[in-house]
Automatic annotation (TrEMBL):
The name this protein goes by in its record: CoA transferase
PANTHER family named in the record: ALPHA METHYLACYL-COA RACEMASE-RELATED, CAIB/BAIF FAMILY ENZYME (AFU_ORTHOLOGUE AFUA_1G05360)-RELATED
Keyword Transferase on entry: yes
GO molecular function: transferase activity
The organism of origin for this protein: Lactiplantibacillus plajomi
Lineage of source species: Bacteria, Bacillati, Bacillota, Bacilli, Lactobacillales
Amino acid sequence: MTYKFGNTFSELMQIRDQSDDPTREITIHKSATTMYKTPVKIEEVITEALAARAVAANDLWQLKTGRRQTISIDSEAAAALCALGTPMTARKNATGHYESIPEAANFSQMVAITQPWECRDGRWFLPHFNLPNLEKRVLSVLHCDKTPASVAQAVKKWSAEDLDQAIADARACGGIVYRPDEWLKTPQGKYLASRPVVEIEKIGDSAPEPLPENDAAPLAGLNLLDLTRIIAGPTCGEALTEHGANDLMVTAEQLPQVPAFVRDSSHGKRSTFLDYTQADNKATLTKLARQADIFLEGYRPGAMAKHGFGADDLKQLRPGIVYVSVNCHGTGGPYADRAGWDQVAQANTGIAYVQGQAEGTHPKLIPVFLSDFLTGYLAAFGAMLALKRRAVEGGSYRVNVSLDQSCMLALRQGLRTDDYMASPDDISTVKYDQYAVYDHTATYGDLKTLGPVIKMSETPCCWHGTTPALGSARAEW
C-alpha cells in the first residue's frame, strides 16, 4: 500500500522549496500496529522527518554525482529510534549473550520527579531536575527533598504562573502544562507559530563552495564541529555522520553528562576535551572552527556569543560556515533566553496535556523523548539544505531548531483515533537484528545497538569507527 505522507513531510518540503516530487524516490514500510501508548503519531512524525532528511542528503548527492538514490524507511524501526537506551542498546554479558543495561539509580530518580505536578491553583507544572547544577537551582526555589512526595508538596504551595517565573529567574528549568490551544495563545506560542519549524537564514556573503570530490557519501569530506550534549544536539551530529560527515565532538572535562546518553548518541564520532574559557583551549577551538563546514551548538541562545563563538563571530572567522543552533524555545519571544528539555517542551506545548487526556488522568509525559530526537533530525535536515545553498549560491547560514517547535509539528500531524492503547508494552520485538550494529568499545563493553534505519540505494547510512570515550581524540581534524 502506498504511504500517504502527512503534514510533517509537507512542511519540510516547503522549507526545501524545490519543484520536484521527491515522494517518487521514497518507499515507506508502515507497520500495521502502533508502537507506543500515545495519541501522538510518533511513527509517522519520525518516519517523515527521516524521509525529509534523506531527501536533503539526496540533493547533496545529486550535486556531487548528477544521480539520485532511492530511499526506503521502515516506520517501526524509525519509531524505535526514540527509545533511547534499553531495549535498543544491549551489552554482552559473561556468557556471551546480550542483555539490557540497567538504568542508573540517579537517572531513575530524576525521571520520577521530573513530572507534571499540581499547583495551588489547580494548574500543573513540570520542574526539571537533570544535571546537578540545574537540579540545585530548582531545589533552591522549591526547598524540598528529591522525592516525588516532597516535590509534589512543594509545587502545591505555588501558583503555576508564580512558580514558572521563579524557576526562570533562578535560571533553572521547568514549564507550565498548557493545552495545545492555550499554548498557541501565549506570546511564546504565537511567536513560534509564526516561524518555520526549521529556520534557515543567510547571515553572510561568501563564494560558492562545491562539495568535496568524495563520492563515499553525501557529506563525505565535510567537517562538523559538534559542541552539543544530551540527546537533541548529539542526535543531529550522529545523523550527519550517517551521511558521511566527520564529527569532532567537543566538550569540557568538567561539564556534567548523562553517561547513557553519551554512549547511545556518539556513534561514528570522535571526542575531544576543550574548555573554551581557557585561552589556549579557545585558540585551539578557533583553529578547528576555521576548518569546519558545520558548527553545531546546543547551549542557551546567546551563550556561545559571550565566548566569541556565536553565529556572527563564526561567519567572520570562517566565511561559508553553516551554524546550527539547537535549543528548547527558539531564538525569539519571551522564553528565548530560557534553557529547557524535552519534558519541558512536552509540558508547554500541550503534548503532556494530550497524553493525560488520553489516559483519563492528569497531565503525563509520552513514553519517549520524541522532541529530542525529532529536533535532532530536523537540525540535520536544515544543515544539509544550507550546505546545498552554500554550494550553489555561496554564503554563511544559520539554522535554528527548537524542542517546542518539534512538539508543535508533531501535534500538527494530528492525533490517533485508532486503538493505540492496545500497543504492546514490550517494544523489543522491533526488527532489531535487521538494523543491529555491534560495537566493541573499551569504555562501554560489547554493545548491540539499533543502527541507522534510513536505507539509501548507493550510500547506505552507517557509522564509521567505534563509540568513543569522552576526550579520547586529539583536538584536530
